[in-house]
Amino acid sequence: MSGLEIRELEAFLVLAEELHFGRAGERLYVSQSRVSQLLRSLEGRIGATLVERTSRRAELTPLGEKFLAELRPAYEALRAAVDHTRATARGTGGVLRIGFQGIIDDHLANAIGGFEKRHPDCAVELTEIPLADPFGSLRRREIDAAVVLLPVEEPDLVLGPVFSRQPQVLAVSPRHPFARRESVTVDELAECPLIGIRGPAPEYWRHAQAPEITPEGRRIPRGPTAGTLQEGMGLAAAGQGGMVLCRSTAEHQGRRDSVVFVPLTGLPESVLGVVWHAEDSGQARAFAGEIAVRARS
Question: Coiled coil: which residue ranges (predicted)?
């Protein structure tokens, strides 16, 4: 165990799930070459090959499969021990880690406040979820509940109450022809390349945020892709295409000098939902209950 690096183990675990160095790098927020470097270092410590590389994908060796089976429960136990010790050190009965996409609006802020009032022995920690990876933090057990944009079709995750229904807007450069319009219809998107989302997010989720076909069946041209909201705003400001956002996120951006937000009609409303692991209960469900109460009011 001398000199063993936890980052090497994390890289191996993610690569074992993705079986692709590029996707593993996106999930870990490092380059593909860095994933390869971490794996080589781990294999050097072990003294054997764990992953067979090909031009298109990666495959675990028999030893890699055995190592994965033994490592995963040990790694989860290690994370649980750290979380438990952190909660004890804080003198609380627990910690609820909530991830969110976009901004914390009044609905979400009130739900958090309600949860803290009902559960004073539980500390709440907030962290922003990368736009390009709505579910990764949950699966890596870095958070306990996630507030994400719909749709959610993940079999290992539970979708709880939905809330914050918002009309959609189109972010474009002030030089774009749509910038002078009072509104734009979804069918007119056939005249505007849409900025997509790049990263480990499921394909169905990425397509929902940047549709490819109008209701009339016209193809919407593909623009560049972005890994973060700020990157997408930068591409829109540079005239590389339009980006679909919910109205509250657009209002929070407030970049009227470089990006114009035009109301977009004909698309379903943007909706947020609370998601947690199917195996989990307790605090995440209690927080979802606070969201549900406010969604009904």
Answer: none
